[in-house]
Amino acid sequence: MGYYMAPRDNYRPQDLPLDKLTHIIFSFTHVIDNEMQFRNEASGEKLSMLVEQKKNHPHLKVMVACGGWGGSGGFSDMAMSSETRKQFVESAVQFLEHYALDGLDIDWEYPGMYAAGNPYRPEDRENFTALMRELRQAMDATGRDLVLTFAAAGWKNYYNYVELKEVMKYANFINLMTYDNVGGGTPYTAHHTNLGWVKPEHVKDTPARSIVEEQGYEYDPRSAEKIIRFCIDKGVDPKQIVIGGAFYGKGWQGVASDNNGLYQSHKGGWRNAPYSTIIEEFEDKNGFKKYWDPVAKAPYLYNAEEQKFMSYEDKTSIRLKTEYAIDNGLGGIMFWQLRSDAEKDGLLDAIHEVASSR
Fold first, then answer.
1. Is residue 211 in a domain?
2. Average pLDDT over all residues of the chain
3. Contact 279, 301 (CB under 8 A)
4. Is 184 left (phi over 0), alpha (psi -120 to 50) or beta?
């Protein structure tokens, strides 16, 4: 299940590796005047061109995402009343019908919580449930087998603000964003998209743990294995859980060389980079050396001379996530986003190779 943002220029959906996907999620629509809309007409034209590719890929489900980190500003106000929810739901179903889509992904970041300056309120918890229920009812009323998913954070605090068991009655899948576990603003380096369950004892005597404890918190590392177990313990059917992969890396600068830069303090964020750039410019190139963390089941890069560190996903880690999804009976694997992959021998190829062989 691949999220996809179409390029501004040179858009050729016929060249996308659609044979290696079951779902592609065109991103993003937004909540505008309580309705689901694109912000520009060109997006609609590009979505129509993508849907046309189903003629050659009849197995493929084409979906659309609404929201995103910087695009969720309209959700809270829209969801606060039955009248405005009805307006949105009707517009969403009309949108799906107009473009002959197979489903909708709600990417509200985040109900009841601060994110990117988006409005939020305590009532978002119940209003999100109502929105998902009303979307499910309206989508089912079309008589088509439409897919409803939502993107969810990969950390536990998010689930204090959503009624998880209730929402899962209406969603086909929960797309777990098991990435962005740390970012440029995090005061230490760490893995941002690790599968492996890192525990506090694994990072003892590191600046990362010291920094957190000095701030008065208990260090509680994040991981895909940890949040998936949390969701299952909360009653989510594993078949409804989709694990997340990151087709990009996150970097820091001014990082000391201890532990090859991992779990160290830094002097600020350096850059985010797509996987295609990482393998072309950084992976064992230009002074960067690649390392593997067997606990986190994740790679990282460190340049000792420039004191730069990057956490990312490679073909080994994405294979392990795919195997984990299969071995644990999960619904599948998704990733952000397709355009960031290498043109040849990329991360989607690694996912497809595992899935095809099992």
1. no
2. 97
3. no
4. alpha
Residue range of the domain that includes 86: 2-202+216-246+313-357
Q: Strand 269-274's sheet: what is its strand order?
A: 269-274, 248-253, 308-311, 298-303, 289-293
Is 283 a known active-site residue?
no
Q: Which residues contact 31 (CB under 8 A, 6 or more apart)?
A: 66, 67, 72, 73, 74, 75, 78, 88
**Of 45, 97, 109, 163, which is the active-site residue?**
109
Total H helices, total E strands in the chain: 10, 14
Residue 38 lies in a domain: yes
Judge contact between 290 and 279, C-beta under 8 A.
Answer: no
Number of domains in the chain: 1
Model confidence over 102-150: pLDDT tens digits? 999 999 999 999 999 999 999 999 999 999 999 999 999 999 999 999 9
**Can you give the pLDDT at residue 23?**
98
Q: Is residue 274 situated within a structural domain?
A: no
Give the pLDDT band of residue 24 (cuts 50, 70, 90).
Answer: very high
Whether residue 257 lies inside any domain: the answer is no
Can you name the residues that pair with 107 across neighbouring β-strands? 67
Q: What is the mean pLDDT of residues 287-303?
A: 98
Which CATH number characterizes residue 144's domain?
A: 3.20.20.80
H helical segments located in the chain: 41-52, 75-79, 82-98, 124-140, 164-167, 207-214, 224-233, 275-277, 315-327, 347-357
Q: How many residues does the chain have?
A: 358
